[in-house]
Amino acid sequence: MAEALLSASRLTKKFGGLAAVDAVSIDLWRNHIHAVIGPNGAGKSTLTNLLSGDLLPTSGSVRLGATDVTGWAPERISRQGLGRSYQKTNIFLPFSVLENVRLAAQSRQPHAARWLRRADTLANIQARAEEALEMTGLQARKHCIAGTISHGEQRQLEIAMTLATSPQVLLLDEPLAGMGVAEAERMVALLLNIKKGHGILLVEHDMDAVFTLADQLTVMVNGQIIASGTPAQVRADAGVQAAYLGEEHA
After folding, report:
1. Which of 97, 112, 173, 229 is most buried, judged by most C-beta within 10 A?
2. With bands split at pLDDT 50, 70 and 90, how would you rate the model's confidence at 238?
């Protein structure tokens, strides 16, 4: 059986007496999107921060492939092959779309801070940036200033920057947040496109998008997993319907 790209075992994070994440185990597989859903305060973002190294676990472990990365700094985990986006778009607004993506690609160079050499003269960096823009549908916008493009395009740009770092695992925290219908449809198509070759953890509140995208679905409430399985299995779970989904998704 193939090895999971990312495997978390009984991850727990306590803040004082409160367990924000309580003994959560989850696996991410290549070519699969694993969605994590739940009400506000369920522990979804805390789980994402534990997986990326932004928070240290109280107990439990995280592995990227065969490597135990528990307790590693975020930048070290990132270099091991994990990329993530945040709830709040995290881009360089005064820079062009291409410059944003090229900076992300350049961070993977052995000597990323070669300040005396023009970034656009590094052929491999330029090629990786162009590929990420193509995958995310931003090629035609590459010379636009990032602060002038739409909210949906800025979210696409953040994913392009993540892809430019050549990750195997992507952690995407509410990538559809604040989008209109057309922008959301484009993002769903983008995520289906980049699923190939990656393992994706998707935290999202848009249930229509979740049921379109997810191969595996995990539901969290009060820091714990109350159900996990295929979308059809989770949709049919009476406990999940009572706790979160409601009758409209039954």
Report:
1. 97
2. confident
